[in-house]
Amino acid sequence: MAQELSEKELLKMEVEQLRKEVKNPRSLISKTGKEIKDYVEAEAGNDPLLKGIPEDKNPFKEKGGCTLS
């Protein structure tokens, strides 16, 4: 699609996108970084990658071995 548009049309689209993005509210990283850190620490107990999955509830546990004869 982009190949079918002229350079002028592509630049207009880019300007429109930038106008939309400039309206997005911005926050200081000092504030949002702390919020993200607090959230991650609060949810760490529920994270299966950190605490693991009980063997009886693991859907990917191998049911049986493979034997060659």
From TrEMBL:
**Which CDD domains does this one have?**
GGL
G protein gamma domain location is 1-69
SUPFAM superfamilies, per the entry: Transducin (heterotrimeric G protein), gamma chain
Please describe the quaternary structure of this protein. G proteins are composed of 3 units, alpha, beta and gamma. G proteins are composed of 3 units; alpha, beta and gamma.
Record field: compositional bias (Basic and acidic residues) = 53-69
Q: What Gene Ontology biological process does one annotation of this record name?
A: G protein-coupled receptor signaling pathway
| UniProt name for this protein | Guanine nucleotide-binding protein subunit gamma
